[in-house]
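Table S2 (continued). Query chain:
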Amino acid sequence: MKSLSKLCDAGDWFDPEFDRIIRTELEEQPRLHRKQWEFAQIFRALRTLGLLRADARGLSMGGGVERLLYALARRVRHLTVTDLYESASGWEGARTDDPDRFVKASAPFPIDHSRVSARRMDMRALEFADGTFDFCYSSCALEHIGTYDDFLTHLREVRRVLKDDGVYVLTTEFHYGDDIIPVPNNYYFSSGFLAELIGTASLEAVGGGDSSLWPHALNTPLPSNLSDLCAHPANGITDRLLASTPHVQLLTGGLPFTSLSVVLTKAASGASTGILPMAGLEETRRFIEAGVRSWKAFVERTRFDLDPFGLFRNRPTRETPRLATLGGDDTLFHTGYVWLGCRARSITVELDTWPADAGNAEIEIRVHRQPVRCPDVVSCDAQVAVAVRGREHLRVNLSLATDEACSYAVLGKLTAGACWASGVSVQVSGG
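Corresponding output:
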């Protein structure tokens, strides 16, 4: 078995013990999804290190009502679960004013409720005495809590509340480049950044880090928002295929990332080398970079029908009429941000529109650019204003020269009056 501090690898699903954990402990069917990998990998690390025992006390941070916490609670004396629980939370898994009752009521399989309790708590300020826990864990939570000082504060808090022989198992989002991708509220870490951060917190990785990957098509990078490129689910076939597509090695824009597990203990000397060196990283980078080049060549020669409602939390069907009003919801449609490589593209938008009252309306069809490394800096690359005077079918064409450092979205905004729209389609083809 590879090191416990390792990259998400499609080959792990073919390991009998990994398969057993998924089927028996998590009580799920195996599927090539990095979130399932994170849960199974954390469970495997804790079991391998002998921490899933009848007298162990554990701490889950950012745990929500994730399936893993219930699997662990069955194997230890007590698991304390923390998260920023509140009724207005943007995350459904933390939306409650009564965390303890919410967590216990959400169990996906029977557990002993006396073995688990939940509290609202910030990962950067753990309200526990020094040396309280045998283990702590978090699943892709660290990268969401702020910037470097926040990450360091969190790690030092975990070090404080762990027993001297305690272990912290975390998973986080890992970028294959030498630099980080500092997306607000969702960092993509590099090996060097994590090594420096972990060392500064006086923690060390158990057995170092392993970044070798099975060189298989299942580990080929795919867009994390692949559904945004698939607007025509014929009889549900596309949705069904997407559900079984590997979600292991992913692209944000054209930048590859995956999940990384790190198993940490207190550094005996008060300093550590973090997770470096990570064995096999250069060879893995070459494999991943070849996959990125292959995807880039594909998107640059392919015509796409974008999901016109990719950025909507609740995606309507394209046949459902949508009303846009000034001062209210003025967005008729908005695709997700998709990476299109680097070449000239033609964009065709079609929709049926009609005024909502006796007056005329006007909408703008726009193309927005979003730099992958600075997603908050959105600009308009192209736009066309269209008057809506009666019921009609509109067809709008725009030209675009794409930049491989950016992703693009197509949207329709009401700029005057009020109108309805339905039957929206957004097509991207070669320039």
